[in-house]
Amino acid sequence: MGYARKAALLAATMIASSLISNSVLLAETSATGAGITIVNKGLVAVGRIPAGQRDKFGETFGSGSGMAIDPTDWKKDADGYAGSLWLLPDRGYNVDGTTDYNSRINKIEIRLAPAAADQALSSDKQQAGVQAKLAETMLLTDDAGKNMTGLDPESGVRAAAAKMPAMPQASTGKVSLDPEAVIRLADGSLLISDEYGPYIYHFSIDGKLISATQPPKALLPMRKGRLDFSSNNPGPGGKVPDPKDPESGRQNNQGLEGMAMTPDGKFVIALLQSAPIQDGGDSSSTRMNTRALVYDASDIDNLKLVHEYVVPLPTFDNKGKVAVAAASEILALSDKAFLVLARDSNSGQGVKGDTSVYRKINLIDLTSATDIAGTDFDGLKPVASKGKVDETVKPAVLTSFIDINDAQELARFGLHNGAPNDRNNLSEKWEAMSIASALDASAPDDFFLFVANDNDFLTQDGFQVGNAYKAAGGADVDTMFQVFRVTLPGVAKK
pTM value? Predict the structure, then answer.
């Protein structure tokens, strides 16, 4: 056999071997709670938006803090699926403190071509299953039409007026917003949850603030007996709060990270990222007992708190110490069950650590949990002092569902968790979830679960608030989508 023929045969064998390794059938995983069993049928697609993408204002695009797929234009065609989603960036590029980044939201046009579980994927197809294109960017404004800002509110408070409660305010006079989750309502208006407040804001279809919902006192950040929204991330020339941490309420940068509406549209559920200060939130090892707030959504501009529960966050071993996987997003299945995306920190592309220990989507069952809404625990009485839940209170139940760090799943799509810390190593912050129907008559309870990262605006070609920048460490962190096919009984709208 000639050399050229041998080389061609060897190359063909290597390609075939690679395709076989990429077509290994993966076992389904499931979780049971609140009277239902949900099933993960596996990762079916991956796609990216480049780190250097700019929006229509010429500023660096950064998204994945929150996501809402529009079900009204989700369609299936000969090439797969097509539709749009709203992707929420957080408060802007803020490695060296916060900036006067105008709060905004992005509309993304999506095409999805999911891979079958036994489909062999060549390298050029591994991350082409999701095609995402930035279609529109809309600025968010306060009730007077003034742009909102990512600047830390330091110790600023805009006084309550008319129907608006006291709100976080930057030294510029703008309302400070650190947006984390988004719900797109049927009329096109938006509910956005916030870290600074931590509040739930209702914005009109054109991005103007309509109303604000203040949480129970137990979650409001207090310093020296006063409301103080600072997160200890002052802008240029700004002042550090005294004391650095709140003395009660949400911890710095641990606000309403997750929010979702139940499929029937009757309730909004919001989840604090980790425990309030008085419930062990002052320590990284005792902050595992967070709170879920369930609101009656019959009047969006007057959300009424009807239930409140203690939700246990996952813990894991971090070099011999107990660590807590903080909540990054939720997806409501009913008023008694939701998915929660929880993760560790400081590991992944764009940061120094390379290997994540914990990134999972879990099922939360509220069925038998104690409802603490309207009790003394809504004031300053701790419900989990030093991380130990009060003996009169039963927390929700958490069950593992999807492991985002699953090595076999990631490898099939050319991704990995850990070294080398390159563009195919998952980035640190996975913070967005939303679902779209599989539109499969033979499996009406099947959905595509979209999960996206918050890339923190990390790029080597950045431009924001009038200044060019390069992220430290040389990383270009793309906005990435992972899509899982899942079975969620009872979620499909009738």
Answer: 0.94
